[in-house]
Design brief:
Low-confidence stretches: none
Helix content: 25-40%
Mean pLDDT: 93
Radius of gyration: 14 Å
Number of strands: 9
Strand content: 35-45%
Structural class: alpha+beta
Largest sheet: 7 strands, antiparallel
Shape: globular
Number of helices: 3
Distance between the termini: 9 Å
């Protein structure tokens, strides 16, 4: 995977999270998987088509999703992962993908995105694609999350 296609996603996540008030989010790790598979409670999938093909998945525990949703809604308490926080997390993924696509245009790659797809549930493994995946781990005041980037 070419780093010029990875950095726009990392920067997109950091830019959007900072804009939404998640000031402490920092990159904490990097790993590679043979396939796009997640094991967290909450997964938001964005498809990529055009100049790049593949998927980007934001993956996190439910508690992190609730905390992020609370921050996005100005600190309103979120105790259950129901319709409102699900909608907020999907919008976060959509904003990150949109920002990332703008960043990709700067390196000459025209990419379109699909609407976000949310998969959530306890004790679940999501097998999304058989494409080699770069996993970038982040941590902040709201919790930890993974940015899974699988480009064909």
């Amino acid at each position: 995977m070419d780093i010029k296609y990875i950095n726009p996603f990392i920067n997109g996540l950091l830019n959007v999270c900072q804009m939404l008030g998640m000031q402490e989010l920092k990159r904490t790790g990097l790993s590679k998987r043979e396939k796009l598979q997640t094991e967290h409670d909450v997964n938001i999938i964005i498809g990529l088509v055009g100049g790049l093909k593949g998927n980007v998945v934001l993956s996190m525990h439910e508690a992190t999703a609730c905390n992020i949703s609370s921050t996005m809604m100005g600190g309103m308490p979120v105790s259950q992962f129901d319709l409102m926080p699900k909608s907020a997390i999907c919008e976060l993924a959509n904003m990150v993908a949109g920002n990332s696509v703008s960043n990709l245009q700067e390196v000459g790659s025209l990419v379109d995105i699909t609407p976000p797809t949310l998969i959530s549930g306890k004790n679940m493994v999501s097998m999304i694609s058989m494409v080699e995946t770069l996993v970038v781990q982040f941590s902040g005041a709201e919790g930890s999350l993974d940015l899974n980037i699988a480009l064909e």
